[in-house]
Structure formats: structure tokens, C-alpha cells
Amino acid sequence: MPERAWGIKMGKVRKIINAPEFIAAGCTLVLLLLFLFTSPMLSLAGDVNISEYLSSSKVKAGFFFISPVLAGFLRVLNHIYRANWWSVFSVSQMFIGLFIFIWFLNKRYRNDGWIVRILLSELFSIFYWEAILKYEVNFTQTACIASLSGALLLIDCCCEYRRNRWMNHIKVVWSIGLILLSGAIRWKAALLMLPFELMGLFYFLVVPCADSHRENHKKYMIAAVVMMTSAVMFSKGLHTAYVLLNPELGEYVEANALREEIADYVDQYPPYEEAKMIYEERGIKQSWIQMLYTFLTGDANHFSSEDLKKMVDLKQSSKKTVKEYVDTLKEHNLMWAAVGLFVCAILIRKGMRNSILPLLGCVFSFFMVSLYFVFIGRFEWRVTNGCILACVISFVIMTSYAACQAVHVKFNRVVKAGVLAAMVIMLLSEGVSVKKENSMLVMPKASVLNQDLADTLAYIDANSDILYLTIDSGFRYYSAYNMWAYHDPEYLNNSFSLVTHFILGGKDVLSDRGVKDLLKDLLEKPDIYCKYSPKRNKVFYDYLRDYYEPCVTLSVVDSFGKTKFLRYAKPVAADRIKEYDLKVALKCVDEFLEDESIIDEVAVCFEISEIQNEYTDFFLNIMDHSSGDVYSYGLKLDHNKCSGQILRMESTWGQNISVNLVGQDLAGNYDVLTDITDMFVQFIQK
Predict the structure, then answer these.
(1) Which residues contact 349 (CB under 8 A, 6 or more apart)?
(2) Average confidence score pLDDT of the chain
(3) If 0-12 CB within 10 Å is exposed, 13-18 middle and 19+ buried, where does residue 325 land?
(4) Predicted confidence band at 216 (pLDDT cuts at 50, 70, 90)?
(5) CA distance 38 to 141
(6) Which of 93, 180, 104, 101 has its CA nearest to residue 141?
(7) 91 with 36: CB under 8 angstroms?
(8) Average pLDDT, stretch 481-500?
(9) Is the Cβ–Cβ distance between 336 and 127 less than 8 Å?
(10) Contacts for 492 with CB less than 8 Å, ≥ 6 apart
(11) Cα–Cα–Cα angle for 394, 400, 405, nearest 5°?
(12) In angstroms, rounded to a whole number, what is the distance separating the alpha carbons of residues 666 and 617?
């Protein structure tokens, strides 16, 4: 090949390699592969719920925080091809944002040598990884990234309005679309990013771009400010319109916001013991508060917006300190190291004169935001890291305007080789946490790695006549081995999590199963079982006693391995006495020794061969003659036998009792089948 042709070819190759799009694509691809090979996490603060509800055939309507329009679009995609579309969408947005961030950085530094641009890109990528991707995928972060990437596209148009106006028009539409998308995901996050974006735009007036005139600069800057602010306000208007058009959605949104106000600021409410009188005056009992803190707020009878306001009114000022906030920041040292190196590299490249004002502005902004976080008492990293990212992006925006006044730095081959080696080492260090057992499949089907859990879930699915409830957040039916998993349409259609019952749409599923009011039906219907959870069961039981039935009972009616399923029941009154000669067996059970709230555990079993066609449901009735209270323990009917384990809780029946087996006939009447008082009393007194 002639030397001239070779030179032209190499020039084209060098031009492609130096293109901002090429470097941005390379860095994004590297982090994407690292992300897929490590353990991508969905945040438990909403994203898990979004993924479940969008990919589940069980829920007809209703979503978590995201816009109903966005949720509806993702549900349409799910009908076309079953997948966890929220995870695909959220992760895609995070990496699209990363591409735009690095593209903007390289475009504004296009006159620099390749070593400088790659160094800056990698330092930013390590910061992005440590601050966001390594932590967890979260809808708040997704909204922040969408808003910031949209702002960068708009600012780039302001700087280069004379070049390729057709492409700039596309960028404007895309940027506004990203900001609107941010508002559709999490309007509060879009609003939080706006001051940082406006700071970068207003700096336009101080340092105009090299190829612009100040008057035109001002005009385009004002237009960009108006467009970004209008997009955020329009998002808020859409959410308001959703609420006005759908009162049920409006109640859910308001109640959920109030629930957040309580659950996110637990330390700012007076302890129940210290303000018991105040709480009780408002109809609030300790079990109600514990239910709220464990997200068991699906009972619209007692967790409406009006009910929640009664506690929100008791909120006090934050007692958290600056030191506590700083301690949370110290937990991310590697991220701060990457930020420090990134800022130092820009300071060297741009010079202190061009960089000091943007640096001071960003530091001051983060200082003020930090004081706000301390003031409200909210230290969640998924919010803090969005503000840190916004500060870094704002710093890049403001320093990029001074490109014509940059300080020229030259590197010899030894320095370049050292820089490249350092970048390779930094990149490899990020892969230390790679888990080799993770799959690279983009959309695997749902799979549970824990064999015991998988077998239990299969057992539940095989008993389709029973509605299984769980109050344990770790037992959700979508338990799969990574965030990309989705579920077949009928996967565990008879299982439902009370933890997520507060999400709008759950009532539709229960309605299909003939359940109109979950807690009332739980106490009345024999075919609703609840998984035993040692941490949450006592809370749920106390709530039922306080707000529904003082004499509610618990009995174990089903089990699989170590997993126990309970039946809750309210007292039933037997009007007629029919003495049958039933063979009754009692057995001591020691399966709940670690649960201090359970006093006695007695297994009851008897044959019903002669009456199995007359009765549909059975109870063990215990009457406390000292108080007159009746405790009816629901039993399980299985062919010609009836059985169950009686769990005697604190503050129930005493010593002076009578015990009867009671049956409910086909007409709904209750009969005393046999009296086993002597047998039962002698047994528990052994």
C-alpha cells in the first residue's frame, strides 16, 4: 500500500478512535460487562415491587411510584414478550446516561490528547461505578440520571447552535424527553436535579462558549432554562392529572406519601411508651405503628390517608448531626478518591483560574444540600449519590466553557505508559467482586437457587385451592437469582405477599379469589393460610387483636419442611349440642420454642368419618369462664381427618376453661360435636 494511502487510512482510523462517541461507547461497554458479570441488585426501596408488579400476570392495575403511562407502556411490552421490563428499562437508562456523560466530557475536551481524554473518562467511570452501579439499581437514581443526561444534551445544543441545526433539534427533543421521563419515574428526583442543572446554564452568562456571541448566548441559555423548568413542572402536572382523573389512585398516592413520611423518619416521632396517651387519643395503637414500620399497610380500613395524617402531625424536628452524615460519606472512600483524581485532572488541564469558580460553586451546592439532608434527617445513599453526581456533572459543564483558555500539558512516553498502567490496574480492581456463578443470560426465566425454598414454593403452587399469604418480605413468590428474572403467567397464582399489599392493584387479584376485605376474610374463611414469620407474626397478630377481634386465634394447619402455615380465626358460637363419639388425639409440639409470644403448642387430631358429609369446617373452641371470652382455633379438614396445632398466645385463656370440638354444617350453623375439657386440661397441665 502506498505511503500516502496508508497515511490517509491511519488518519481515518485515528479520527474514529478519537471521536467522543467511540470513547464513550468503549467505556460504557466495559462497565456494562462488569455490571453483568457482577451481582446487579434491585433496590428494595420500590424497584423490587415495580419489577414484580409489571412482570406479574396477577396484578391487573396499579403501580408503585412510576407514572401510570410509563407503567402501562412497560406492561404492553410485557404482553408482547414476557420479561422484567422495568429492570431492562432502568439499567438501559443508567448506561445511556453514562454514555451521554462521557460523550459530553470528551466532546468538550476534543482538543486534548487521547491520553487525557481516556484518563478523564476512566476516572469518571470509576466514580460512576462506585457511587451508583456498584451500590444498587434504584428508581430514584434512574430518574436523576435521566434528568442530568437530558440537561447535558440541551447545554451542548446551546454551545453549538450554529453547527448542524437539524441534529441540534433532535437533541433538544431528546433532552426534553429524558427530563420528562425523569419526572415520570420519580418527580421529586427530577426537581432535586433542577438547581444543579440551572447552575450550569447560568454560568453561561459568566463564561460564554468560544464560538458564540454573548447576546446569542443569553438567548439560548434563557430558552434552555425555560424548557428544563417547564419539563419538570409539566411532569408534576401530569401526576396531578392522574390523581384528579382517578380518585382511587389519588388516595393511594397520598397515603403512600404519608407512609413514606413516617417510615423514612422513624426517629422523628415520639416513642409510643412516652406518648401513649397522645397516640391513643388519635386511635393509634402500638401494633398499628409496628405494622406501618414493616410495610403491612394494605388494610384500607385503618391505613387511609386520614388515618396516616393523625401520626404525621406528631412529627418532630430531626435530631441527626453533621457528624452522622459525614460518617455515611466515609463509607465510600474509593468513590471519593475517584472524584478527587477526576477534579484534580480537570484543574490541571483547565488551570486554576478557569476552574476555581465552578469548583467553589459545586462544593457550596453540595454543602447546602448536605445541610438540608441533615435538617430533614435523611441520609439515604440512593439520594445522596444523585446529588454528588449532579455536582460532578455541573463542574464538568462549567469548566467545559473555558476550552479556549485551557492549559496545555504534554506527556512523554514514559508518563503515558505509567498513566495507562495505572488505568488498567484501576479497572481491574473494580472486577475483584465478580461472582463467577452469576449467569450472563440477559433474560433468564425465574429460578430459585435455594432448593428448600424452591420445593416449598412448588408445594404452594400445587395447592391451588388455598390462598397462601406471607408477611415475610424474604418469601416473595418472585424470589429469583438475579434482577433480570421474570415469571410465567401462572407461577404461584395462589400466593400473595401482604408486604406488598399496600401497592394499588392488589385488591384486584384478591377479588378474583373471592376476597373483598382481606383481614376480615382471613378471620372468617377456612381456605386462607398465612406463612409463619417469627419476626413479623407477633406484630400482625397484635394488630388483628387491637383492630378486629380481641380473641383472634392462631393454629398451624399446614407445613412443608420447616415452613409453617397458620390459620387465623375469630370466635364462633355453637348454638346446638350434638355429642359424637369421636376419637381425639392430643400431642405436645415443640416447634416454636424460640418464639416467646407462644405459651403452649398442642396438636389436635380426630377422625370424622361418620360426619364428614355433614360439616364443612371445624374448630377447637376454648371458653375462659373467668372472662367469658371464647377462642375458636381453626382446624384443617383433610379427607376423613381434621387436625391442627393450637398456638396459645400471651393474654389469652387461663385455667378455668371448657373445651369443645365445633363443626360448621352445610347451612352455616355451628354445632358442639364433643366435649374434651377434661382430656385437654389434664394434657396441658402435665
Answers:
(1) 109, 112, 116, 120, 406, 407, 409
(2) 82
(3) middle
(4) low
(5) 19
(6) 93
(7) no
(8) 70
(9) no
(10) 457, 460, 461, 477
(11) 140
(12) 9
668 in Cβ contact with 621 (< 8 Å): no
> How far is Cα 351 from Cα 337, in angstroms, rounded to an integer?
20
- Torsions phi, psi of 48, nearest 5? -60, -40
Q: What is the mean pLDDT of residues 463-467?
A: 89
Q: From start to end of 410-562, where are the E strands?
A: 467-470, 495-497, 528-531, 553-560
Q: How many CB atoms lie within 10 A of CB 142?
A: 28
Nearest Cα neighbor of 51 from 488, 454, 483 is 483
- Rounded to the nearest 10°, the torsion over CA 53, 59, 65, 70 is 80
φ and ψ at 272, to 5 degrees? -60, -40
Q: Where are the alpha helices (DSSP H) in 19-57?
A: 20-37, 47-55
Cβ-contact 296, 501 below 8 angstroms: yes
Q: Which residues contact 333 (CB under 8 A, 6 or more apart)?
A: none
Q: Mapping DSSP to helix (H, G, I), strand (E, B) and coil, where does residue 528 land? A: strand
Dihedral of alpha carbons 220, 225, 228, 229, sign: negative
| Nine cell digits for residue 314 | 406528631
Q: Which amino acid is at 512?
A: D
User: CA-to-CA distance for 453 and 445, rounded, in angstroms?
Assistant: 17
Joined grid coordinates for residue 335: 468513590
Q: Largest Cα–Cα distance in the chain? A: 110
- Residue corresponding to grid cell 408486604: 499
Q: In degrees, to the nearest 5, what angle opens at C-alpha 82 toward C-alphas 78 and 87?
A: 75
pLDDT for 345 equals 85
CB of 499 closer than 8 Å to CB of 66:
no
Give the whole-angstrom CA distance, residue 606 versus residue 661: 10
Residue in this structure with the C-alpha cell 495505572, named with its chain if needed: 422
DSSP per-residue letters across 629-657: EEEEEE-EEETTEEEEEEEEETTS--SSE
Between CA 559 and CA 460 the distance in angstroms is 10
Q: What is the pLDDT of residue 449?
A: 67
Cα-atom radius of gyration of the chain, to the nearest Å? 31
CB atoms within 10 A of CB 7: 11
* β partners of residue 602: 588, 646
CB 31 within 8 A of CB 96: no
pTM attached to this predicted model: 0.83
Spatial distance between the Cα atoms of 361 and 340, rounded to a whole number of angstroms? 16
Give pLDDT, residue 440: 43
DSSP run (H or E) holding 371: helix 352-376
The dihedral built from the CA positions of residue 29, 30, 34 and 37, taken in this order, carries a sign that is positive
In the chain, count of helices (H) and strands (E)? 24, 14
Poorest-confidence range of 47-61, 65-79, 653-667? 47-61
Distances in whole angstroms, Cα of residue 154 to Cα of each of 109, 142, 175, 197, 373? 18, 19, 6, 10, 29
SS (H, E, C) 402-450: CHHHCCCCCCCHHHHHHHHHHHHHHHHHCCCCCCCCCCCCCCCECCCCC
- Report which secondary-structure segment, H or E, holds 619: strand 615-624
**From CA 21, how far away is CA 103, in angstroms rounded?**
6
β-bridge partners, 631: 622
The amino acid at 121 = S
Cα(494)–Cα(474) distance, rounded to whole angstroms?
Answer: 17
Please give the grid coordinates belonging to residue 62.
396499579
Interatomic CA distance for residues 74 and 312, integer angstroms: 34
CB atoms < 10 A from the CB of 118, how many? 18
Q: Which of 371-375, 401-405, 430-434, 676-680 has the lowest mean pLDDT?
A: 430-434
Q: Which helix H or strand E contains 260, and what residues bound it?
A: helix 247-263
**Spatial contact of 611 and 623, defined as CB atoms under 8 Å apart:** no
